[in-house]
């Protein structure tokens, strides 16, 4: 009897060792998640992905076509990932792999941890951090407005080619009737466009300045905004006081395209690249969109910036940047804090891998010359802050990021300072 028990025990131990050995060698690739205290790794087998812990215990089964971290800066308190299977995305728990949300075509977590954007049948909505659907996927477009009050988010929406704003529970704040709305609220005010003219609406929907202006040159800053009416330039404040001024951008014509402007020690061209070897006509012109290539289309004496030069624009101690509108064109204005020289980057959008133009007037992307070392199809770019997977925008700044080199985006070249 003792011999039989010993034999059974030895067999069990052998089976456990075989299982452990097999588990240690069952993955095609393992990549640790470099977040202190998390102790998890991505693993894949036969192009199926999951998560394992340090002992190779499977936390999320290797059955998904993709797996992506959600809220990387706060994974220890918000331990969620987005997994995809059968062309459907779900949110799963990092603790036990439990599926926490319904299935959607796409899910994108924001740095704002209170909600995530979902996409279903080419319509967009929002789920809360408790995974309840607070805004059903009925809108053609969503973006998160810049509104600096705690615990309150304003969502810009597009429906039937009209724009407006709702809160996180889909209550209408500003009616969905405008041809365009700005993404920045300043002193509870936002610029809108109706019947081809620009005006100002308050956060409670009150029409503070009726839409009558032809162009917005600069949005509100320090309580004033620069606009244009009947070829006249006007400074208008939040009390509707108008002050006529001289043409503030007439100096654009005096700046030769080949001279450029120095911002934080880097000489930037004032205009985007257009056809190979030429600049776009004005700083507000979109120019041509290019796929990433080692063949630089910049004019003679100019080149695509490196990642360090792009990062120099993002140095908040030396460069100010604001989302603004110039001559009716949305984009980002970068200003050297010392010299007060500025350059404008229009939001030209991008052409995706299907040849479709995405995010025109809502996002700006600009190539660097640097590809990702271990990712042959990705390169760094300057991005006027937005989500890059599909048409959902996070307003609030510029950053460097990576983008598929099959996409076509803008080029703003630099030149060496003589």
Write the layout of secondary structure elements.
Elements: H1 2-24, E1 29-32, E2 40-45, E3 48-53, E4 58-64, E5 66-70, E6 80-85, E7 88-93, E8 106-109, E9 115-120, E10 123-128, E11 133-139, E12 141-144, E13 155-159, E14 162-166, E15 172-178, E16 180-181, E17 189-194, E18 197-202, E19 207-213, E20 215-221, E21 224-229, E22 232-237, E23 242-245, E24 261-263, E25 266-268, E26 290-291, H2 307-313, E27 319-326, E28 329-336, E29 342-346, E30 350-351, E31 357-358, E32 365-372, E33 375-384, E34 392-394, E35 398-404, E36 408-409, E37 414-415
Parallel strand pairs: 12-34
Antiparallel strand pairs: 1-2, 2-3, 3-4, 5-6, 6-7, 8-9, 9-10, 10-11, 12-13, 13-14, 14-15, 16-17, 17-18, 18-19, 20-21, 21-22, 22-23, 24-25, 25-37, 26-36, 27-28, 28-29, 30-31, 32-33, 33-35
Overview of the molecule:
It is a single chain. With 418 residues, the chain is mainly beta. 7% of the residues lie in helices and 46% in strands. It has two helices and 37 strands. The strands form eleven sheets. Strands 15-14-13-12-34 form a five-stranded mixed sheet, with no helix packed on it. It is globular and about 70 Å long. It starts with a helix and ends with a strand. Mean pLDDT is 80; it is low at 13-25, 249-257 and 386-397.
């Amino acid at each position: 009897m003792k011999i039989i028990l010993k034999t059974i025990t030895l067999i069990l131990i052998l089976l456990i060792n075989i299982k452990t050995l097999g588990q240690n060698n069952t993955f095609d690739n393992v990549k640790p998640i470099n977040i202190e205290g998390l102790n998890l790794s991505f693993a894949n087998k036969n192009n199926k992905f999951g998560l394992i812990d340090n002992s190779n215990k499977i936390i999320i089964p290797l059955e998904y076509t993709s797996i992506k971290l959600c809220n990387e800066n706060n994974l220890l308190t918000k331990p969620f990932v987005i997994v995809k299977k059968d062309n459907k995305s779900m949110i799963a728990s990092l603790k036990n792999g439990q599926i926490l949300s319904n299935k959607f075509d796409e899910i994108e977590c924001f740095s704002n941890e209170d909600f995530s954007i979902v996409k279903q049948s080419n319509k967009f909505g929002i789920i809360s951090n408790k995974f309840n659907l607070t805004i059903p996927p009925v809108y053609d477009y969503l973006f998160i407005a810049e509104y600096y009050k705690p615990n309150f988010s304003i969502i810009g929406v597009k429906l039937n080619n009209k724009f407006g704003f709702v809160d996180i529970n889909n209550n209408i704040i500003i009616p969905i009737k405008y041809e365009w709305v700005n993404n920045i609220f300043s002193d509870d005010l936002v610029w809108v466009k109706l019947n081809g003219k620009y005006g100002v609406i308050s956060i409670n929907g009150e029409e503070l300045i009726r839409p009558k202006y032809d162009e917005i040159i600069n949005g509100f800053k320090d309580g004033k905004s620069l606009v244009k009416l009947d070829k006249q330039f006007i400074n208008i404040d939040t009390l509707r006081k108008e002050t006529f001024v001289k043409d503030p951008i007439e100096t654009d014509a005096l700046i030769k395209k080949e001279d450029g402007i120095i911002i934080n020690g880097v000489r930037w061209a004032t205009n985007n690249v257009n056809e190979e070897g030429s600049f776009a006509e004005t700083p507000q012109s979109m120019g041509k969109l290019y796929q990433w290539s080692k063949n630089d289309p910049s004019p003679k004496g100019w080149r695509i910036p490196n990642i360090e030069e792009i990062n120099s624009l993002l140095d908040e101690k030396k460069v100010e940047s604001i989302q603004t509108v110039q001559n009716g064109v949305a984009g980002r204005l970068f200003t050297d804090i010392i010299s007060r020289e500025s350059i404008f980057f229009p939001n030209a959008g991008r052409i995706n891998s299907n040849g479709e133009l995405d995010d025109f007037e809502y996002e700006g992307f600009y190539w660097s010359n640097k590809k990702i070392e271990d990712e042959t199809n990705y390169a760094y770019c300057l991005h006027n802050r937005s989500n890059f997977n599909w048409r959902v925008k996070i307003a609030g700044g510029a950053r460097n990021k990576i983008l598929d080199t099959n996409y076509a985006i803008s080029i703003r070249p630099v030149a060496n300072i003589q």
